[in-house]
Automatic annotation (TrEMBL):
Pathway: Cofactor biosynthesis; thiamine diphosphate biosynthesis. It is an enzyme of class 2 (transferase). Residues 16-263 form the Pyridoxamine kinase/Phosphomethylpyrimidine kinase domain. Keywords: ATP-binding, Kinase, Nucleotide-binding, Transferase. GO terms for biological process: thiamine biosynthetic process. GO terms for molecular function: ATP binding; hydroxymethylpyrimidine kinase activity; phosphomethylpyrimidine kinase activity. This is hydroxymethylpyrimidine kinase. It comes from the Bacteria. GO terms for cellular component: cytosol. Its EC number is 2.7.1.49.
């Protein structure tokens, strides 16, 4: 009998009971793109589409054990990291993942929610830079998060180029700077490669508030395409296109009373079956 395997993605992130962001968005995205989703819970935010009400921590040793349990059994082809809200948690995740250097890591440095709620402690930023940036193939901050990292205001595409250059100097291997918060009819994103090249992407901006979880979705989509064997540059392009279409197909749907979710399943793919060697 012939056997197969699925391209697997591990999502390490926080919870979202409203279903639009965090692990829920990760699992939906990974599944919609034909990959097998495994997950590790890093925190338990109490939130809905209107904002974050509270955040309850997960014991650090429990996070470590979750990662080890998954990696020992279902080795992923890519890893997505989302909400990591304390420096101790950063250290635990980085130390555990350093044992698996061949698995590409896509890191979405979640610091500010779509609602504008600050999700991260000040001391944690330095820990992210020192320990998680070096092991990540790509980081995907939004403009609010990039402004924190670059320590500057970002109001224009020119500001994005300057901020990206500053963030690269912090030691990350690749950077996708998402320009969705800029004024204008187009969304410009900049992909700073580790060879010094910068690729620019433009997408139409839609009149909608249904963008809750778009950052989580993007990083998971990129990780999913990497798990399928795409190059990082190709995964960056395809991941952005997926998010763009997910926003478009969910822009007129009312879910909750605040910032609604994307339509992750606008064109779901069957689970991809790869031959076992």
């Amino acid at each position: 009998m012939k056997h197969y395997t699925y391209p697997s993605v591990l999502a390490i992130a926080g919870f979202d009971g409203s279903g639009g962001a965090g692990l829920q968005a990760d699992i939906k995205t990974i599944s919609a793109l034909g990959c097998y989703a495994t997950s590790v819970l890093t925190a338990l935010p109490v939130q809905n589409t209107q904002g974050v009400r509270n955040i309850y921590p997960i014991p650090y040793h429990a996070v470590k054990e979750q990662i080890e349990a998954v990696m020992d059994d279902i080795m992923p082809q890519a890893i997505k990291i989302g909400m990591v809200h304390t420096s101790e948690l950063v250290d635990v995740i980085a130390a555990t993942l350093q044992r698996y250097p061949k698995v590409p890591v896509i890191f979405d440095p979640v610091m500010v929610a779509t609602s504008g709620h600050r999700l991260i402690e000040e001391a944690t930023i330095e820990a992210l830079i020192n320990t998680l940036f070096p092991i990540a193939a790509l980081i995907t901050p939004n403009l609010d998060e990039a402004a924190l990292l670059a320590q500057m205001e970002i109001k224009t595409v020119e500001d994005m180029y300057l901020a990206g250059t500053k963030i690269l100097k912090l030691g990350c291997n690749g950077l996708l700077l998402k320009g969705g918060h800029l004024e204008g009819k187009k969304i410009t994103s900049l992909y700073f490669q580790n060879d010094g090249k910068v690729l620019s992407f433009e997408f139409e901006k839609f009149d909608t508030t249904n963008t809750h979880g778009s950052g989580c979705t993007l990083s998971s989509a990129i990780a999913s395409y990497r798990a399928q064997g795409k190059s990082l540059a190709e995964a960056v392009l395809l991941g952005q296109d997926y998010v763009h279409q997910a926003i478009y197909n969910g822009k007129d749907v009312l879910v909750g009373k605040g910032n609604g979710p994307l339509n992750h399943f606008f064109n779901p793919q069957k689970l991809i079956k790869n031959d076992l060697d």
